[in-house]
Each structure stands twice: as structure tokens, then as C-alpha cells.
Amino acid sequence: xxxxxxxxxxxxxxxxxxxxxxxxxxxxxxxxxxxxxxxxxxxxxxxxxxxxxxxxxxxxxxxxxxxxxxxxxxxxxxxxxxxxxxxxxxxxxxxxxxxxxxxxxxxxxxxxxxxxxxxxxxxxxxxxxxxxxxxxxxxxxxxxxxxxxxxxxxxxxxxxxxxxxxxxxxxxx
Length: 173
Prior knowledge:
- This protein is α/β, with parallel strands linked by helices.
- It has helices at 19-32, 43-49, 60-79, 91-105, 111-122, 150-166; strands at 7-12, 37-40, 84-88, 130-133.
């Protein structure tokens, strides 16, 4: 029996830009065609439950946790036989959040840490068959139950697209 390799999709972008909604719709469509689909995600929430800072308080340790946990989650669902993996927050997402946090605070990353975490995240990108990057539309209201700083959201969006452009990574918006 010959099997095809699993299809991997990832999405990244600032918070409340439709990432999860997009992946839920893709997941439903693919399941409707009889494919076994696994969606990973909730990394920020899980990091917070593990005691790690999030959003504009994101640090090196939480960045590394999110990247490595995302890798572990995707590996686990593949081991369980998923034909399609949809990753809610591809690895560069954590880097964009961290860079945004640093700029938000007016700080810079230690060069070695910046290089190490960027390298860790970049090793994961070639595995995606399709990568989506959302685009911030500030006219769309966000959930007021969350502590969203508009400047921080813009910085995450800017860093997301800058990282992808800098590394010549094609995306679908």
C-alpha cells in the first residue's frame, strides 16, 4: 500500500484576525471530503497555564516553549495518523510576538538568543505545504474580554509580515 505524505498547513498573525476561524472552516471542509484532519493550537493559553508570560509580556522562555510545544503537537497528531495537519500558529508566530514585545517595551534581544530562537523557528517552516498569514484590519472589532493593546497588535502584524518577507517565505493572505 502506498500512502501520500500528510499535508501540513500553518497560520500565523496577530491576535483576533481570524486564524482559528479560518482553520476551523478548512478543517470542516477537509473532513467533509473524508480526510483525517488534526488541528493544533491554543499555544498561548497553554503557555499561560504553564506559568509563562504571554502577549506583550512574551519572553525568550515562552517563545521557546511555544515553538517546541507546537513541534511536539504536530508530531503527535502525525503519529496518530492524521492525513492533514492544520497548525493554529506556525513557528514564526512566536518569533513575531516576541519581537513585537521587545519593540513594545523599547528593548532588544540578546543577539545569541535572537539567532537561536529564529533558527529554531525557521527549521519548521519548510514542512508546511501551505502557510497563511492573516492581515490586521483595525476596523474589525476585537473581543473586549481580552486585554488587547492596539499598538502591540500592530507590532505583531508588522513583525509577522517582516519575518516572512525577510526570509522570502511565500504565504497566502
